[in-house]
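Technical annex, item 7. During the second reporting period the consortium partners agreed on a shared format for inverse folding records so that results from different sites could be compared directly. Each record opens with the tokenized structure and is followed by the designed sequence. A conforming record, contributed by the partner at site C, is shown below for reference.
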């Protein structure tokens, strides 16, 4: 049975090898957050387009400031977006604001905090060095230089940069369409009144949200009962989309039919179990050229396995590199004891004390306990090599997407 890291790499290798060219579209820049850039973005001019002051103060010639308490004549003022006609000559200066263009003749800016002014006479309390508090023209980027590469995920900084160079509309890849199919006779719609032994389809909503957070477009197929013919028809509908994600029906029970139906459809299975808990029965296959994920039906299992395995497939089919798992280290706040030859992902609460993260496992009743998961903002990751971990030891934690 594969480790979760090997299973994740298998998803990346197989999905990356599929012959899939992401569709493209052009969107308004205000609608491009989180999208994947389909074409590179280049600088339309030098940045900055002029020698730019980085502090409020006085534009000077550095050579005029060498003597202690040098005095200069202020011959004008430049604000951001303004201009100055003329040049700074010997023993002259110009008052300048942050972001303004440095006037001709000046080669440094002295911060206003280090000056005293009496009328137009400016006394400098410290010397300046050539280039001080100035960003030269083109220092950030030269005209036509590459700013954002094809395949870049557009966050707020990337969008700001695209706006700076006038890209009001951006070519992006279309979001992969992810079909979501729940299974099981016991599952009813969210707005239905469940029977005494039925449950509402909370997994369907969770998976829709996870797909959206991951950059995909969810396609909700509802629930299929434990009947081969209906399940097959639903799976075939899901295979019309870019990715198919099923929840439930992948364990070893008599009515767990997902693997049987996929086999009948000539699916190629890449793994049918992972050495992890929760999530051990997770399945990954390809069928008709599409990635197919069979996730365990218990909610905590569904959410953990989506994060580990489905998310990198969405990234790859979006035209991006798979995002690394955001696992980081924290000190254990309560003792942990988990035995068995697999990695455990345990609902946990992560808090910070100063700059140090601390994590405490939460009480829970197994992989069906979504109530406990709602109190958690991450997972404590406990491997088989450390069955007992004492308070204060460093451990791995995986944040819950959207909770931190």
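Designed sequence (site C submission):
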């Amino acid at each position: 049975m594969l480790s979760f890291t090997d299973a994740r790499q298998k998803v990346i290798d197989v999905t990356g090898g599929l012959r899939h060219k992401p569709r493209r579209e052009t969107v308004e820049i205000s609608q491009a957050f989180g999208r994947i850039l389909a074409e590179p973005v280049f600088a339309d001019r030098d940045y900055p387009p002029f020698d730019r002051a980085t502090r409020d103060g006085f534009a000077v010639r550095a050579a005029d400031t060498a003597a202690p308490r040098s005095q200069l004549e202020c011959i004008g003022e430049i604000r951001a977006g303004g201009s100055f006609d003329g040049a700074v000559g010997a023993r002259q200066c110009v008052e300048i604001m942050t972001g303004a263009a440095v006037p001709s003749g000046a080669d440094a800016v002295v911060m206003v905090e280090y000056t005293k002014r009496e009328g137009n006479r400016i006394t400098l309390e410290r010397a300046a060095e050539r280039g001080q508090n100035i960003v030269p023209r083109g220092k950030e980027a030269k005209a036509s230089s590459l700013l954002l590469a094809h395949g870049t995920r557009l966050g707020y900084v990337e969008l700001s940069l695209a706006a700076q160079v006038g890209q009001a509309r951006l070519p992006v890849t279309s979001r992969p369409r992810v079909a979501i199919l729940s299974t099981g006779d016991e599952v009813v719609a969210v707005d239905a009144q469940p029977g005494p032994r039925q449950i509402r389809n909370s997994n369907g909503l969770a998976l829709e949200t996870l797909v959206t957070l991951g950059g995909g477009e969810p396609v909700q197929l509802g629930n299929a009962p434990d009947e081969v013919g209906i399940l097959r028809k639903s799976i075939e509908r899901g295979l019309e989309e870019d990715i198919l994600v099923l929840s439930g029906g992948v364990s070893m029970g008599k009515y767990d039919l997902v693997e049987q139906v996929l086999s009948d459809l000539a699916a190629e299975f890449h793994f049918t179990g992972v050495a992890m808990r929760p999530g051990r029965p997770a399945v990954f296959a390809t069928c008709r050229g599409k990635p197919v994920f069979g996730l365990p039906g218990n909610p905590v299992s569904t959410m953990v396995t989506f994060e580990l395995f489905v998310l990198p497939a969405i990234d790859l089919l979006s035209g991006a590199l798979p995002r690394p798992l955001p696992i980081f280290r924290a000190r254990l706040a309560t003792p942990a004891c988990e035995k068995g030859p697999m990695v455990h992902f345990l609902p946990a609460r992560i808090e910070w004390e100063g700059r140090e993260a601390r994590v405490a496992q939460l009480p829970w009743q197994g992989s069906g306990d979504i109530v406990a998961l709602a109190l958690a903002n991450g997972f404590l990751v406990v491997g088989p090599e450390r069955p007992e971990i004492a308070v204060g030891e460093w451990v791995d934690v995986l944040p819950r997407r959207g909770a931190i």
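The chain has seven helices and 28 strands. The mean pLDDT is 95. All partners now use this format for quarterly exchanges.
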